[in-house]
UniProtKB/TrEMBL annotation:
Protein name, UniProt field: Peptidase M19
Annotated keywords: Signal
Entry keyword Signal: yes
A Pfam family of this chain: Peptidase_M19
Leader peptide range in chain numbering: 1-21
Top-level taxon: Bacteria
Organism: Alishewanella longhuensis
CDD domains in alphabetical order: rDP_like
Length: 405
C-alpha cells in the first residue's frame, strides 16, 4: 500500500503505548499516526545505474525502489546510500578500478543531494540526522560496502570520514585484502574457509575506530567478524543481515554472532531480502533462474537497459503468479533477534535496489507497512522507535565519542 505524506501528517487517532502493547487489531489510521511520530532509518540502500542523471532522477517517481517521492509516500525519513565496488583481484590495477567505481558512486549520491537541497541533506553525525529531520528534510547517510576500493593501505580512511562515510563493510562477495567473506568465490581462488582478518584488516579496524566510522560486519565471514568485534573499541553494525536460526543462509547471523554483537553493544539490522528471509517457492525460484539466463546471462552489471527493463517487468509478473516471501516472514526475523539479544541491539534494513524487498515492503512507498506489522505484534512506540532508528543513532554517537577518546 502507498500512502502520501499529507495523509501521514493528517492521520487522526494516536495510540498510547499501553494500547499498542496489547492490541492486535491495529487500524490503518492508527498505524499512520504512530509512523509519523517515528524517525525511520533504513541502513542499506544501493543506487542504480545512471543514478542522479537523466537515466534515473531520484527527485521523481522512478523504476528504483527508493526515490524521494517514494520516501515521502511511505514515511521513510533516512537512508544509508551505498558507495560500492564489486570484489576483484588483489592487484594494483584492480584496486584502482575499484577506487574509480567507489568515486563514481559517491559523486552520484552527491549530485542527488545538490539537486534537491530543499528536500534532502547529508548527515555526517547523529546530531545532523536529528537536525535535518526537525527541518522536515529527507536524510542521506553514507555507507561503504566493501573496503576493497581502499587498496593496499588505509591512507584514504580520513578522506572518506571527512566525506561523511558512517560505516564501512569489511568485505562483500569474496575475500579481500582485509578480511574473509561469508561468501567466498572460487573464481577468485578464495579458500572455502574464512582466513580471518589480515594484518592490514586489523589496521583498518583501528583506523575506522579512530575516525568515528562504524565497522559493518554484514558480508563478513564468521571468524573475521568475531575478530573485528573483539578488536573494535566502538560498537559494530551488521547493516543488512538476518537471523540464521530463522532461515539458513550464509549471509545471515547465527546465534553466536548475534550474541557477539550484543556483547559489543552493536546492532544487527534485519534485512528484507527474500532469499535471506525464507525459502523461495520452488517454481518461482526455477522461473527466476530461467529469466536470468535469458536476460542477464552475464550478470546485471553487464546487461543493457533493454535487458534490465525486460527482466524487471517479467520478474514482477512472476511474483504475481507465485507465492512470495512476505513482510510477516521478514518481521519473524526481527522477533527472533529481539528475543535473542534484546530490542536495543536490533534494527531494520531493506537492501532496496540491491535485491531487497518482500511482499508488503517492496519499495520505500510501503515503509508504513513495517510499522503496522510491528504494532500488530504488540511492539510499543518506544520499541518501534528503537528498531527504526534509535539504536542506530545510539551507536553512531558512541562511535563518534570513541574517536575522541
Amino acid at each position: 500500500m502507498r500512502f502520501s505524506k499529507i495523509a501521514l501528517l493528517t492521520a487522526g487517532l494516536l495510540l498510547s503505548s499501553q494500547a499498542m502493547a496489547t492490541s492486535k487489531n491495529i487500524t490503518e489510521a492508527e498505524a499512520r499516526a504512530l509512523h509519523q511520530q517515528i524517525l525511520t532509518i533504513d541502513t542499506h540502500v544501493d543506487i542504480g545505474r545512471g543514478y542522479a542523471t537523466h537515466l534515473l532522477d531520484p527527485g521523481g517517481f522512478t523504476k528504483a525502489q527508493v526515490d524521494l517521492p517514494k520516501m515521502r509516500a511511505g514515511g521513510l525519513d533516512a537512508v544509508f546510500l551505498i558507495v560500492y565496488a564489486a570484489q576483484g583481484a588483489l592487484t594494483a590495477e584492480a584496486y584502482q578500478q575499484a577506487a574509480n567505481a567507489a568515486e563514481h558512486s559517491y559523486q552520484a549520491i552527491m549530485r542527488m543531494i545538490r539537486a534537491y537541497p530543499e528536500q534532502v541533506g547529508l548527515a555526517r553525525t547523529a546530531d545532523d540526522v536529528e537536525a535535518l529531520h526537525k527541518a522536515g528534510k529527507r536524510i542521506v547517510l553514507l555507507g561503504m560496502e566493501n573496503a576493497y576500493p581502499l587498496g593496499d593501505s588505509i591512507k584514504d580512511v580520513p578522506k572518506w570520514a571527512e566525506r561523511g562515510i558512517r560505516y564501512v563493510g569489511l568485505t562483500h562477495i569474496g575475500h579481500n585484502q582485509f578480511s574473509g567473506s561469508s561468501n567466498p568465490r572460487a573464481d577468485l581462488n578464495d579458500s572455502e574457509n574464512d582466513p580471518g582478518l589480515s594484518a592490514l584488516g586489523r589496521q583498518l579496524v583501528k583506523a575506522l575506530n579512530q575516525h568515528g566510522i562504524l565497522i559493518d560486519v554484514s558480508h563478513v565471514g564468521k571468524k573475521s567478524m568475531l575478530e573485528a568485534i573483539k578488536l573494535s573499541t566502538a560498537p559494530v553494525i551488521a547493516s543488512h543481515s538476518s537471523a540464521m536460526s530463522v532461515h539458513a543462509n550464509l549471509r545471515n547471523l547465527d546465534d553466536e554472532q548475534l550474541a557477539a554483537i550484543k556483547a559489543n553493544g552493536g546492532v544487527a539490522q534485519m534485512v528484507a531480502f527474500r532469499s535471506y528471509v525464507a525459502e523461495l517457492d520452488p517454481a518461482l525460484a526455477a522461473a527466476i533462474n530461467e529469466l536470468r539466463q535469458q536476460y542477464l546471462p552475464n550478470g546485471w552489471a553487464n546487461a543493457n537497459e533493454e535487458q534490465r527493463t525486460s527482466y524487471d517487468a517479467k520478474l514482477t509478473q512472476l511474483r504475481r503468479e507465485h507465492p512470495d516471501v512476505t513482510l510477516a516472514q521478514f518481521v519473524d526475523h526481527i522477533d527472533y533477534a529481539v528475543k535473542r539479544i534484546g530490542i536495543e541491539h536490533v534494527g531494520i534494513a531493506s537492501d532496496f535496489d540491491g535485491g531487497g524487498g518482500v511482499e508488503g515492503w517492496n519499495d520505500a512507498s510501503e515503509t508504513l507497512n513495517v510499522t503496522w506489522e510491528l504494532m500488530r505484534r504488540g511492539y510499543t512506540k518506544a520499541q518501534i522507535q528503537a528498531l527504526w532508528g534509535g539504536n542506530v543513532l545510539r551507536i553512531l554517537r558512541q562511535a563518534e565519542q570513541a574517536a575522541k577518546n
